[in-house]
Specification:
Elements: H1 16-45, H2 50-103, E1 107-111, E2 117-120, H3 122-128, H4 132-135, H5 146-162, E3 166-169, E4 175-178, E5 184-196, E6 199-208, H6 210-269, H7 276-303, H8 306-310, H9 313-328, E7 331-337, H10 345-366, E8 370-378, E9 381-388, H11 404-415, E10 419-424, E11 430-436, H12 438-441
Parallel strand pairs: 7-8
Antiparallel strand pairs: 1-2, 1-6, 3-5, 4-5, 5-6, 8-9, 9-11, 10-11
Helix pairs in contact: 1-2, 6-7, 9-10, 10-11
Length: about 450
């Protein structure tokens, strides 16, 4: 720090090349000045010795040559230093890249234009069960199942022509690799390409997804088993409902009808001396039997409408719509056009239950005054559409809370290979569309 309290500016370091330049320039300038001064002095005395002038000229040329030589050495030294630094930095980058490749958790394989392996990292050794010493120089086809080799070679060639730097492989299908012991396994892979002079190199990064594929397959099998279980439970429920409905309709209904006839016989057998109170009790019993018979028929119809088995799907849906209007006071507009289609018992039951569940959801949640019911034959199969003018749902397709009714509709449609679409919005009503393939619900013609 100086006496004034201010810190003097730091001195800038001078490199070796700069010091050489700074030392050469003053020496050359001093020599040139000396020669010029001597020449002027001789000229002033009019002393022109030819030998002396030649010596002066030679001294000037030597000084100039020394300056040029020193400057050339300095520039050469600077260029050498820069080249050495660049080579050193390149070596550091290459070592860093190789360390990343060696420690990568993905298998990395680099091949040349002849699709021969030129790089095989440790993870590739682990995945394929093959050492890098055995892999380098070998064709890439060694690690591809035989049935895929020709197609893979064409794909790599086409990728090289495109000029795209990188691309994910196996989007259309799962790729397979081949271990050294002959075992095939699923992989995920991506490929990239670079040019190294006149040579094009391809680098494939891949990972073994055997465990993930196994987990997905196990999950898919569990899902299919659950669907089969659900379908079996639905069938058992329908069979049980059918049995109970027929017993209610046939056995209990017939017994109640017989009891009503017995009461009528007792009333006719009473003479005029019977009290009015007894006759009133008999009339009350008859009315109660009528109400009980109606309840039994309603319960049996809710379980399984007899007309669904006796008359078919369309009359059963018509009865269901009329019964819905009578119970809840909600009008149902119908647009049913199925042509001459003959529905199978399974298909008719599924469609009837979907309509029944959809109307039940309208009665419970929609607060609607009108329902439009449409069942039409289309090119892709049969399309069932049920729409209401109710409150709708703010959840973009699902009513508030867990809807087991919609879940049941989806399961029934899925069992028939169909799809379910829901469109709704707050205050815009609720629209349920179910599309079922025709072959899944129509009666199959017997082959002669």
């Amino acid at each position: 720090m100086s006496a004034s309290g201010k810190t003097p500016p730091p001195r800038r370091a001078v490199t070796h090349e700069q010091s050489n330049g700074f030392a050469t320039r003053p020496a050359f300038a001093a020599g040139a000045a000396f020669v010029v001064t001597l020449a002027l002095a001789l000229a002033a005395r009019r002393w022109f010795d030819p030998v002396l002038l030649v010596c002066i000229a030679a001294a000037l040329l030597v000084a100039t040559g020394a300056f040029v030589l020193v400057r050339a050495r300095r520039e050469a030294s600077s260029a050498y230093s820069e080249a050495s630094a660049a080579i050193s930095q390149s070596g550091v980058n290459e070592a860093r890249m190789m360390a990343i490749i060696r420690s990568s958790m993905e298998a990395i394989i680099t091949i040349d234009e002849q699709q021969r392996v030129v790089l095989f990292n440790p993870m590739a050794e682990q995945v394929f069960g093959c050492s890098a010493m055995d892999a380098i120089g070998a064709p890439l086809a060694r690690f591809i199942p035989e049935r895929y080799r020709a197609a893979h070679a064409r794909h790599v060639e086409q990728f090289g022509v495109t000029g795209v730097s990188d691309r994910q492989m196996g989007r259309q299908r799962v790729l397979s690799g081949l271990r050294a012991n002959g075992e095939e396994f699923p992989i995920e892979a991506s490929i990239s390409q670079i040019r190294d002079g006149d040579t094009r190199l391809y680098t494939v990064m891949l990972r073994d997804v055997t465990e993930r594929v196994r987990a997905e397959q196990a999950q898919q099998r569990a899902r299919e088993e659950l669907r089969e279980l659900s379908a079996n439970l639905q069938k058992i429920r329908e069979d049980e409902k059918t049995r109970i409905a027929r017993e209610l309709h046939d056995d209990l209904g017939q017994q109640l009808t017989a009891l009503k006839m017995d009461i009528s016989t007792v009333e006719e057998a009473l003479d005029a001396s019977a009290s009015a109170q007894v006759r009133e009790h008999l009339h009350g019993m008859r009315r109660l039997i009528d109400v009980t018979v109606a309840s039994v028929r309603r319960i049996a119809a809710d379980l399984r409408p007899v007309m669904l088995d006796d008359l078919g799907l369309i009359p059963a849906v018509e009865w269901l719509a009329n019964d819905f209007t009578n119970r809840y006071g909600i009008d149902v507009e119908r647009d049913i056009e199925t042509g001459d289609a003959r529905f199978s018992p399974t298909g008719a039951t599924a469609l009837f239950r979907i309509v029944q569940e959809a109307l039940t959801n309208v009665a419970r949640h929609a607060d609607a005054t009108l329902v439009t019911l449409s069942l039409r034959a289309a090119h892709e199969g049969f399309v069932l559409r049920i729409a209401d003018n109710g409150l709708g749902s703010p959840n973009g397709g699902e009513p508030a809370g867990k809807s087991f009714g919609l879940l049941g509709i989806r399961e029934r449609a899925h069992m028939l290979g169909g799809t379910v679409d829901i469109h709704t919005a707050q205050g815009k009503g609720f629209v349920l569309s179910v599309t079922i393939p025709a072959e899944a619900v129509q009666m199959q013609e017997l082959q002669s």
